[in-house]
Amino acid sequence: MSNLKQAWWITQKDIKNEKRYFFWTFIFAGYMAFTISIMIMGQSNADVRFLNPITDFMMLMIMTFLGFYFSRRSFKYLSEDSYTQMLIYFRTLPISPQIVMTYRLLQTFLALAINSIVFFGLLYVVSPSIQEQLAGMGYVAFILTWLGYAMITNAIYIYAEFLNRGKKYFWISSAFVPLMIVIALIINLCGGNLFNLTVEMSHQMGILSPLMWGMLLIGVISLYISSIVTLRKLQTRDLV
Q1: pLDDT value of position 44
Q2: Cα(184)–Cα(63) distance, rounded to whole angstroms?
């Protein structure tokens, strides 16, 4: 059986065992969509050009979560170091690190697909200003631009998740919050608005948007590099 088939078998088994948690994944993605839409509608001018840096921060943070779906493991990683325990379990079967990495990538892409449908679908439905600015391929370009960024952040998460204990992984994940605040503030101080930029580029150029293609390319490269480096270190990581 090929690595991909074995990884997909593990993914299917994982989904079957954790399917009760998927409800909360949908709820979270939907809640985030409504939160962003309320911010948009709450502006003095309904035009997305007047969004404040809080929206930038929210989008930067929300996209980091799109590569995950809720599971018992994700809820217990701090108290039980569940990701390390998973790696120990796979190693005793034995399941090769290559299969484990393929499984993790499949998990990421599956979560991105599911969460994107819920989040971006609801965002479009409940945000009249977004509907006015973006339609058809313009909205597709907008989605793909942000998914490129989501792949970049999830490349970091994969590296941190597989190579660190639960407590250290928690602090690495927590560091994203102040980092995104700083990024949003710097962009605002420079007179820019990241959310506005993605909307304008998607509206004007659709799927020919260089920002979209650039983010997707960087996202794919980031996942590739993260997988290679993580796999190399995972093979020699002491899990005890």
Answers
A1: 45
A2: 14
Angle at the Cα of 40 (from 51 to 58), degrees rounded to 5? 70
Residue 106 counted as domain residue: yes
127 in a structural domain: yes
Q: Cα separation of 33 and 190, whole Å?
A: 27
Distances (CA, A) of 31 to 19, 25, 139, 143, 165: 19, 10, 20, 18, 30
pLDDT of residue 43: 53
Number of domains in the chain: 1
Residue 240 falls inside a structural domain: no
Q: What is residue 42's predicted lDDT score, i.e. its pLDDT? A: 61
Residue of 152, 211, 189 whose CA lies nearest to 53: 189
pLDDT per 10-residue tile (average), the chain, 240 residues: 79 78 81 81 52 80 84 72 81 83 90 89 84 85 93 92 84 87 85 83 88 94 93 81
Please enumerate in sequence order all residues whose Cβ is within 8 A of that of 29, keeping only pairs 6 or more positions apart, or say none.
66, 114, 115, 118, 119, 122
Domain that holds residue 84: 3-234
In a domain, 239, yes or no: no
Q: Which amino acid is at 236?
A: T
Q: Around Cβ 237, how many Cβ atoms within 10 Å?
A: 15
The whole-angstrom separation of Cα 61 and Cα 70 is: 16
Closest CA to 34 of 140, 134, 119: 119
CB 206 within 8 A of CB 137: yes
Cα–Cα distance, 115 to 132 (Å, whole number): 23
Q: b/e map of 23-47 (b: 16 or more CB within 10 Å)?
A: eebbebbbebbeebbebbeeeeeee
